[in-house]
Amino acid sequence: MKIQHSVMVGMMSRVADKFHEYHPKKSLRERLEDAKKVTIADGIEIVYPSEFSDQISAVRLIKDSGLAISAVNLNVKSEKRWEKGSFTAPDPQIRREAVDSMKSAMDLAVEFGTDMVSCCPLIDGHNFNFEVDYMTQWGWLEDGIRLGASHRKDVKVSLEYKLNECRNANILSDMGRVLYLCERIGLPNIGVTMDVGHALMARETPAEVMSIAAMSGRLFYMHFNDNDRYWDWDMIPGSVNFWDLLEVLYYLDRLDWEGWFSYDIAVRDGSIVETMQSGIENVINAQKFLNKIGVDKINGWINNQSSALTFKTLIESML
Length: 319
Hints:
Layout: E1 2-8, E2 15-16, E3 21-23, H1 28-37, E4 43-48, H2 55-65, E5 68-74, H3 92-111, E6 116-119, E7 125-126, H4 134-149, E8 156-160, E9 169-170, H5 175-185, E10 190-195, H6 196-201, H7 206-215, E11 219-224, H8 242-255, E12 258-263, H9 272-293, H10 295-304, H11 307-317
Parallel strand pairs: 1-4, 1-12, 4-5, 5-6, 6-8, 8-10, 10-11, 11-12
Antiparallel strand pairs: 2-3, 7-9
């Protein structure tokens, strides 16, 4: 398993909820400087188009930072024009703009030396019964993603799912839907960004659905964080669901998966730099813990299907 670690630059600035602001807004230059202080990281994930209001200046700034780019994260949710949807907006002009944004993100990825665009179409879905035509909406999604991803074969389009937010019910809400979409479209450069926290929210077993995606040849990219399975808190990986984290790493290792782990962590307490560093270290140390136990021993547990013995030994291994 060959892994590189990346931090999301968009998460290294203002963090706020409905009631409180935890960190002040920082410029792209400031966040790039902070990203360099996460010394254990190998690169960054950059957000398009929100980071590129002055594209020439932003591109120069990012290249001058010397930081490797793991992926360009396509944001088609925040601007006012996406209020009714992006790839599934009722207005065909807005749908065309979503496709054009994907094409631009793919071109930008190549300019930054990466082959990955990650996109979570959070504004596509519905809030109420009888609000949208589900069949028409799904058709628009297929058409838009197919048209955008066809722009170039040398860039992967990695689709991230989430149960809800911004919509009460997102159109890409779980792993099954994303894999179904990939198969319906049929292009080899369309796959899945597996966000561990989003799998937890969807009441999935992260390692299970991740393995299915990998066996389908569609597991392109990983996001690591944690939550309580009820809301997407973007907590430090392993801080709540440690056994799920451990199992994810076990199967990635067994699959001999290669790629980027990106850290989507919302820091409400303490230093953003220290928390990002800690998040990566947690994952690396969890992998070391797996190595300490040994793959053969874990394989034996699975073959014997004795959960009592498994968790007795797991706990003992931590002493």
